[in-house]
Write a structure and sequence with these properties.
With 242 residues, the chain is α/β, with parallel strands linked by helices. It is 42% helix and 11% strand. Helix 3 packs across helix 4 and helix 5 runs antiparallel to helix 8.
């Protein structure tokens, strides 16, 4: 996820949270700019963080959802369940990606100035409920992201497409979708995926934007406890207790 409040992280003790900024730190080059590179990274994180080699419940937000879905397809032995937030099986229209890549390459100002652009556009990404101090904290946590990191993710999304493979996911899966997401049609995408992943659950987050998990009225712990698919975690899978 992009920036989950620390209190949320500490309360969901049995869940491994996928950090989208893995992409920025990894920053694969053009020859290795594929989602499987990040899947390998995530597999390594699971192997390190999950005690006794137990499969992990992986939560991915936005681009992180694409990596989480890809990992579940490539390495189902490592994944006990999926929680996918405001994500997609294919980023459409692809023209937006091509234009974004061209714009990032041709920026007429230093990359450091992007912090100002992000501040002015934050209202379109965050939930209206999110306090300004949380948005400031989010911007601080993601300030180190580089131009190369952004470009790497956009290139990965040009190749990414799991639409025809969703039926191969045989894991408890929860799709969370904000109905005021201005970046992707999150509800429509979540419904599309939920219809194709066997036994998947869908929950619409009413009144929320693309970056929703730091909103004060989103209780991730309670959402996960209310998830019917949670009952499908075996003791070996390391699912949360009551």
């Amino acid at each position: 996820m992009d920036a989950v409040a620390e209190e949320q992280r500490s309360r969901v003790l049995d869940f491994l949270v996928l950090d989208v900024e893995v992409a920025a730190r990894r920053e694969p080059d053009d020859e290795r700019g594929k989602c499987d590179v990040l899947v390998d990274d995530l597999a390594g994180v699971i192997g390190t963080a999950s005690p006794g080699g137990r499969p992990a419940v992986v939560l991915g937000e936005s681009f992180g959802g694409a990596v989480a879905l890809s990992c579940a397809l490539a390495r189902p032995d490592l994944v006990a369940g999926l929680v996918i937030v405001n994500s997609f099986p294919r980023f459409l229209p692809q023209l937006r990606l091509r234009l974004a890549i061209a714009a990032l390459r041709a920026l007429p100002f230093p990359w450091q100035a992007m912090s100002l652009v992000r501040r002015f556009t934050a209202f379109r990404l965050h939930s209206s409920y999110t306090h300004r101090r949380e948005i400031r904290r989010f911007l601080e946590l993601t300030a180190a992201t580089t131009r190369r990191g952004y470009l790497a993710r956009l290139k990965i999304l040009r190749q990414y497409d799991v639409r025809d493979r969703l039926s191969g996911i045989r894991l408890p899966t929860l799709f969370l979708a904000s109905d005021r997401d201005h970046l992707v049609p999150a509800v429509a995408q979540a419904r599309y995926m939920a219809e194709r992943v066997s036994g998947a659950s869908l929950r619409v987050l009413t009144g929320h934007g693309h970056i929703c998990l730091i909103a004060p009225n989103i209780d991730l712990d309670q959402i996960l406890r209310d998830w019917p698919g949670r009952a499908g975690f075996s003791p070996r899978a390391g699912g949360p207790g009551p």
